[in-house]
Amino acid sequence: MSELRKRALIGAALCEIAERGSLDVTVAQIAGRAGVSAALAHHYFGGKEDLILATMRHLLAEFSSVLVSGLREAPDPRARLTAIVRGSFGREQFHHATISAWLTFYAKALSSEVAAWLLEIYQRRLNSNLVHALRALVPGKDAVRIAESTAALIDGVYLREALKGVPSTPESAIAVIERHIDLEIRAVQA
Amino acid sequence: MSELRKRALIGAALCEIAERGSLDVTVAQIAGRAGVSAALAHHYFGGKEDLILATMRHLLAEFSSVLVSGLREAPDPRARLTAIVRGSFGREQFHHATISAWLTFYAKALSSEVAAWLLEIYQRRLNSNLVHALRALVPGKDAVRIAESTAALIDGVYLREALKGVPSTPESAIAVIERHIDLEIRAVQA
DNA sequence: TGATTGATTGACTAATCAATCAATAGAGGT
DNA sequence: ACCTCTATTGATTGATTAGTCAATCAATCA
């Protein structure tokens, strides 16, 4: 029962945060959506902060698993890069709701030590994956630089997607990133 | 006195928001920093929401004026692009505080109609400036595409700067964007 | 001087919400 | 039947905070 309720509460928190576009969600709202009382949320998570952080961890873990499974199937370095890009824009759904939740967590990282720490781990892992794949294609120094700009571009495109009211397909977003990678690699190799 | 107090309150709100890394600032905190009572803030702005939005407008207006003056001095299209990039990363200060405030406003745009509208105006203007400068260098269709990816890259780099605890110089950030622009232009012209 | 007006505040209200707690219910074991 | 542990909740508390209001203060003007 414990795990079941925790999962339900995390899912409800995700929905509520995304729907309201803010971390100003009450425990009662989350619990209500999960079909339980607010007191139960406290029982299982200790406090609101822990529930929010658990939700964040869930999102990060989910992305991580998508990334790992994508990378496993990539045959060569360039395909690994594509896997990372597609993973970044294919996380569960490319839904406005999920993207909103991410942006909200980014904002939280400004004021929460733990949230910042969690995001840093995600960023480091993304960066390390990019660098690793790039090293097979360009000199090490360039790999680091290209990884950095690519990661920033991913975040930027993601951010703009969050603010865009209408949902769109990930394909156009992916194309932007892919082109950037291609241009950078070609520029170095030329 | 009216204008003086309003300016002081907006400045205080900016500081408070940036320092706490969140829009969860109380009217009392802002007013206290401005050296007045909370009641006065209500007197001048009507409500908390209006004060926050006025602060947002201030930030946007400030950026806009920096951009305009930078563009006026640019002798050719490529210099105009550089002016836009430098303006984006030279807004008043490249301070962690200011960047934090921007990210916080981005998050607010998810839940506030007016905030979203304000940000959209800023984005549209930035985009239009980029497209206009690019049209002199590449075909129209490419100009639109490059403007889009450049704007996203600017936002992405800015975002990462916000989360980075340590402050850094804008030069490295500017270099990333400039390189992206150069690569894109060269790829089209080739 | 006396009146008017704007600036300013302290005190108050009403609402919200996280967190706590005591109490109930049910399952499983003895 | 009795105990024990977990799940669950309604009620309550304590803290926070936006917004209001009546009262004061200061300057300007008639």
Superfamily (CATH H level) name of chain A: Tetracycline Repressor, domain 2
> How many beta-strand elements of chain A?
0
Specify the oligomeric state: homodimer
Distance, first to last CA of chain A: 60 Å
Overall CATH architecture of chain A:
Orthogonal Bundle
Q: Note poorly predicted spans of chain A.
A: none
Largest sheet of chain A: none
**Largest interface (C-beta under 8 Å):** A-B, 38 and 37 residues
> Which radius of gyration of chain A do the C-alpha atoms yield?
18 Å
Shape of chain A: elongated
Fold-level CATH name of chain A: Tetracycline Repressor, domain 2
Number of structurally distinct domains of chain A: 1
Total DSSP helices of chain A: 9
Strand content of chain A: under 5%
Describe this structure in words.
The structure is a homodimer of 190-residue chains. Chain A is an all-alpha fold. Chain A has one domain: Tetracycline Repressor, domain 2 (Orthogonal Bundle), CATH 1.10.357. The first copy, chain A, has 9 helices and no strands. In chain A, helix 1 crosses helix 6. The termini of chain A are far apart. Chain A binds chain B through residues 20-22, 24, 100, 103-104, 106-111, 116, 119-120, 123, 148-149, 151-157, 159-160, 162-163, 165, 176, 179-180, 183-184, 186-187, and chain B through 20-22, 24, 100, 103-104, 106-111, 116, 119-120, 123, 148-149, 151-157, 159-160, 162-163, 165, 176, 179-180, 183-184, 187. Chain A binds a DNA duplex (30 and 30 nucleotides) through residues 1-2, 5, 26-28, 36-40, 42-43, 47-48.
